[in-house]
């Protein structure tokens, strides 16, 4: 099947007239963020600015189809910009050299040599990276954690993505799979996690956790859930974390309480991370952060209440991510220019 | 009071005849491990061998009295060896430069500039370090974790000491207080910890935890606790982790079960650390390791059962520490020769 994808090598040998200011931005990179539902691609300059962006639906789980989509996006974006390298961020574990996808939960990659496949097709250097690592790198380079020497980033989406930056390097562990903070067991025997365990942090502090708790509240037919049920026309299954976040921002007390609970779990887990890692700062991003201070205020409270040694140590500040949903593609692009040491 | 302590400067300017092979070991260091009950000091060569050792009772909590004991130990050991530097390991938090004790749970040090006090008294370079960091350094340099690029060390005593080595460096965090693995909350609302929280890991996987569980079993008047009660002549308060460890080694089934439970908690907490840190190896030391495989076997089982992503990643091996109770002083001595970068 891969032979059906046309490599872009012919295209890259010509300087095309549409190239925008190649002299001013000689080192443009494309970052591609592959999610379970969407693929986002953007041209990113050395200051972290996104010059152009495209989005596609994720074309199922077939690796060849995903590769074809990547080639299409690079080809399209490459028409107007001279692209030096391509960075791919995806949920999953990459080997330490950024060559192979060891495992990806939402895609069918298992020991997939994606990098060499793509370098052949794109005729440019390619770097694979974990999506949470990419987002953390972007926040460290251009965002809320700029220049911090010990930075922990938490990305709150359906689950929890995690990454740590130490002395300007993503700390990826011995086998490249560090930073899975969402799978610290924080409640033995607790809610089942898709990782196979029970009681993982992401079952308590994520968009999925928020939705599950809200549905449980609604099913209990509590009068406090009235507004929530009204918002989904009585369809309990339609209650998601995003619905609750929106209702909380509109002032619904039950939704605010639900987010407060999630914030408490968020702060407790961060206190655990501070005990182990002692970062200088936490940056919290991801979709759930649409809730803003409704989430962060209780998180900070629980963090302060559970930080071991509180009163005898500085408490790391907890900041909202600055780059929003583009952090992943910005970081992937930038990492392709700054391959990890 | 400090003026009562005589500095050793006069002594160090003479080459005394008792010096043992100064040419062969030009870089001897003294390591001093200050515990809540004992101070251990030893002369350590560059291969990590302890050439001489002394022990004293910890002289209460007064910093000046502890300093006097240190001077006495260095003076005594210095009679037979030419000592280039002195390393001090103690439970507590040191600042990143190794100059000041920020906080020590068992001693009265609070923002104590111990290093400059001691350098004045000892007339030699002094390095302060956390006792768990010192033990980990020793295991990495000379023991079970030799040369590992990502090593996590767990010291199981009354509580849990933790440290991580990354690329040959102790990772101490932004404020120097990383590695407090024992205070990850692993059971919200669980047993009260002396750190002020509830449910810390060290309340479930430590010598204290083992003793507490055994006393509870004995108080429940369970017939399975017969052997345990016999060993302490019916005095429940005399049941400690050390008593249970000894009984388990003699084959008492209840004591073996109690250690098995502690091993389970140990493995669960290590799985949490593996999720976050992805080390290449764990080294487990400290007094509780007298239980050997009675502890490690259930720990490995629980680790394997709770490791997130198991089956899709390598599982770090879990090894017993090799240097025993001298690891702290060996590491403190060696760190005084190899000050952290």
From TrEMBL, chains A, B:
Any one GO MF annotation of this record: glucokinase activity
SUPFAM superfamilies, sorted: Actin-like ATPase domain
Highest taxon of source: Bacteria
Keyword Transport: no
PROSITE patterns registered for this protein in UniProt: ROK (PS01125)
Regions that span the bilayer: none
Enzyme class: transferase
InterPro entries documented for this protein: ATPase_NBD, ROK, ROK_cs, ROK_glcA
Pfam families: ROK (PF00480)
Keyword list, A-Z: ATP-binding, Kinase, Nucleotide-binding, Transferase
Keyword match Nucleotide-binding: yes
Region (Disordered): 1-21
Annotated EC: 2.7.1.2
Similarity remark: Belongs to the ROK (NagC/XylR) family.
PANTHER family per record: GLUCOKINASE, ROK (REPRESSOR, ORF, KINASE) FAMILY
Protein name, as recorded: Glucokinase
């Amino acid at each position: 099947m891969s032979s059906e994808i046309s490599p872009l090598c012919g295209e890259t040998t010509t300087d095309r007239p549409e190239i925008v200011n190649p002299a001013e931005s000689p080192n443009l990179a494309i970052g591609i963020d592959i999610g379970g539902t969407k693929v986002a691609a953007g041209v990113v300059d050395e200051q972290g600015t996104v010059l152009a962006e495209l989005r596609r639906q994720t074309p199922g789980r077939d690796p060849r189809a995903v590769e074809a989509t990547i080639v299409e996006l690079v080809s399209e974006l490459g028409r107007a910009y001279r692209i030096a390298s391509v960075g791919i961020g995806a949920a999953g574990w990459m080997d330490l050299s950024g060559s192979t996808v060891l495992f990806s939960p939402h895609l069918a990659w298992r020991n997939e040599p994606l990098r060499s496949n793509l370098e052949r097709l794109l005729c440019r250097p390619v770097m694979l990276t974990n999506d949470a690592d990419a987002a953390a790198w972007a926040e460290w380079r251009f965002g809320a954690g700029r220049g911090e020497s010990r930075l922990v980033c938490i990305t709150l989406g359906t689950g929890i993505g995690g990454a740590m930056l130490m002395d300007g390097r993503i700390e990826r562990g011995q086998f490249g799979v560090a930073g899975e903070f969402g799978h610290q067991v924080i409640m033995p025997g607790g809610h089942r996690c898709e990782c196979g365990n029970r009681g993982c942090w992401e079952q308590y502090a994520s968009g999925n956790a928020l939705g599950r708790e809200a549905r449980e509240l609604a099913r209990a037919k509590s009068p406090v859930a009235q507004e929530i049920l009204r918002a989904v026309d009585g369809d309990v299954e339609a209650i998601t974390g995003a619905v609750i976040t929106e209702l909380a921002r509109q002032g619904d007390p039950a939704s605010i309480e639900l987010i407060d609970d999630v914030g408490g779990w968020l702060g407790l887990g961060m206190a655990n991370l501070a005990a182990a890692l002692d970062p200088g700062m936490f940056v919290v991003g991801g979709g759930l952060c649409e809730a803003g201070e409704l989430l962060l205020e209780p998180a900070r409270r629980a963090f302060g209440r559970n930080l071991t040694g509180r009163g005898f140590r500085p408490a790391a500040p907890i900041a909202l991510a600055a780059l929003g949903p583009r952090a992943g593609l910005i970081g992937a692009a930038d990492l392709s220019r700054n391959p990890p040491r």
